[in-house]
């Protein structure tokens, strides 16, 4: 399986950096609480809860996937992306402009997963996607440019960072499952994923 441009940085974050990020996520969630998004059309709930930081948040509901500046339940603007998260982007993205969205996915202790999808709601695909894993280990699956392309899977552990750049930026991917109890980072268990994305063209 060739995913050109895909880069896994195992153990990028020290334990204390991971603990700090969990605290930052808790702070974000105080002003922008996790909520349960629903699938377009069917209205079926996602198995992950979500919130966002940054000028634009990614949301999903019956009317579709989109970016918007406000939390869908409170109507408040999303909080800013914490400095420690921007630092990861600056170090690993190789992109000259900052991310506009930090989507925060919360995989609970029970059976959360993320179906195969492409990140394609952005205007600008030249910037990579930078994805940070915290908490329980996840089985990540990635294919190619077509939904039917062959796939392969590998594990993402707490503190790992994955960069989807080049062709892999547009490859189908998802989370098969989360391996409960594999990390002690998050008190309640489960997993947190931070997905950093550029939404509009810089300039
Ligand atoms: C996603 O691609 O939306 C989430 C990936 C992850 O949770 O690691
Ligand atoms: Fe994604």
SSE blueprint and pairings:
Elements: E1 6-9, H1 15-31, E2 48-53, E3 57-61, E4 64-68, H2 83-92, E5 101-107, E6 114-117, E7 129-135, E8 138-142, E9 152-156, E10 161-164, E11 173-178, E12 191-197
Antiparallel strand pairs: 1-10, 2-5, 3-4, 5-12, 6-11, 7-10, 7-12, 8-9, 8-11
In short:
The protein has 203 residues and is an alpha+beta fold. It has helices spanning 15-31, 83-92; strands at residues 6-9, 48-53, 57-61, 64-68, 101-107, 114-117, 129-135, 138-142, 152-156, 161-164, 173-178, 191-197.
Q: What is the ordering of alpha helices and beta strands?
A: EHEEEHEEEEEEEE
Strand order of the largest sheet: 1-10-7-12-5-2
Oligomer: single chain
Rough shape? globular
Care to describe what's here?
There is one protein chain. This protein is an alpha+beta fold and 203 residues long. The protein has one domain (6-197): Alpha-ketoglutarate-dependent dioxygenase AlkB-like (Jelly Rolls, Sandwich). Helices cover 13% and strands 32% of the residues. It is built from 2 helices and 12 strands; from the N terminus they run βαβββαββββββββ. It has helices at residues 15-31, 83-92; strands at residues 6-9, 48-53, 57-61, 64-68, 101-107, 114-117, 129-135, 138-142, 152-156, 161-164, 173-178, 191-197. The strands form 3 sheets. A 6-stranded antiparallel sheet has the order 1-10-7-12-5-2, with helices on one face. The protein has a 4-stranded antiparallel sheet with strand order 6-11-8-9, with no helix packed on it. β3 and β4 form a beta hairpin. The radius of gyration is 16 Å and the shape is globular. Bound molecules: succinic acid (SIN) and fe (ii) ion (FE2). Fe (ii) ion binds next to loops. Succinic acid is lined by residues 105, 114, 131, 133, 138, 140, 156, 173, 175, 193, 195.
